[in-house]
Amino acid sequence: MARLTSGDLSFDFRYAGFEYGWVQYEFYFRWKNEHIARDSLLKRWGEYWGRRPEGAFLANEYEEDGLLPLLKKVLDEDKADYWEPMEPDIIVAVYPEAYFPFLPSRHKLIYESDEHKAKREERENLKREKWKLPDDSYTVIILIDAYNFREADAYYGQGLSLHLIVTRRDLEEFAEALESEYIEFKQKFKVEEWLEQNAYRDAPPDYP
Question: What is the CA radius of gyration of the chain?
Fold first, then answer.
């Protein structure tokens, strides 16, 4: 399981299975390694929802994972973007050098020490020279559609979200962990073989 952390908050993400061409995900919002969502509120009817682990949210994407390509694209281009699978149980948005609520700050600089100013200007010069720095900042927002919750019978376009502020290094390490796990996942579930055998399917099957 790959983990993206910001202080005591964490987003844990796992490739859980592959059925009928669908990549299945399990993921968690945690505070100090404890589940943020109350397990009793999560949907558990039927085979798909009924086998979720404690505190896990579920989602799936048809044929290929979409989270890893999103992270690689944002890290490469440094432009805000998001991933939403075909069935929108989750949306992951990444904003480089931006802080929620993404509007001009109302804070005004009253005083800045010479030392702090020198460090800030040094970093600004380094950023212009190198463009990408290990301590570049990103706001990551993960929205879980309310369809994951008990008695919800349709997608809402709203739900529970987790906001993390992380560095480029954090995001790169998360992406590397995901890529390693995804390679193992595809081998375990023979994803490439399935894609080759079903390359000419007109439409994905309904799932779950």
Answer: 20
pTM over 0.85: yes
Which residue type sits at 168?
A: R
Buried-state track 96-130, b at ≥16 Cβ within 10 A, e below 16: beeeeeeeeeeeeeeeeeeeeeeeeeeeeeeeeee
Strand, coil or helix: 21: coil
Cα gap 167→196, rounded to integer Å: 38
**Interatomic CA distance for residues 183 and 179, integer angstroms:** 6
Backbone angles phi, psi at 107, to 5 degrees: -75, 145
Q: Which position has the token pair 């995900």?
A: 25
Rounded distance between C-alpha atoms, residue 28 and residue 58, angstroms: 9
Distance CA 90, CA 204 (A): 19
| pLDDT tens, N- to C-terminus, the chain (208 residues) | 999 999 999 999 999 999 999 999 999 999 999 999 999 999 999 888 999 999 999 999 999 999 999 999 999 999 999 999 999 999 999 999 988 888 787 777 676 676 766 666 666 666 666 668 889 999 999 999 999 999 999 999 999 999 999 999 999 999 999 999 999 999 999 999 998 888 766 556 665 6
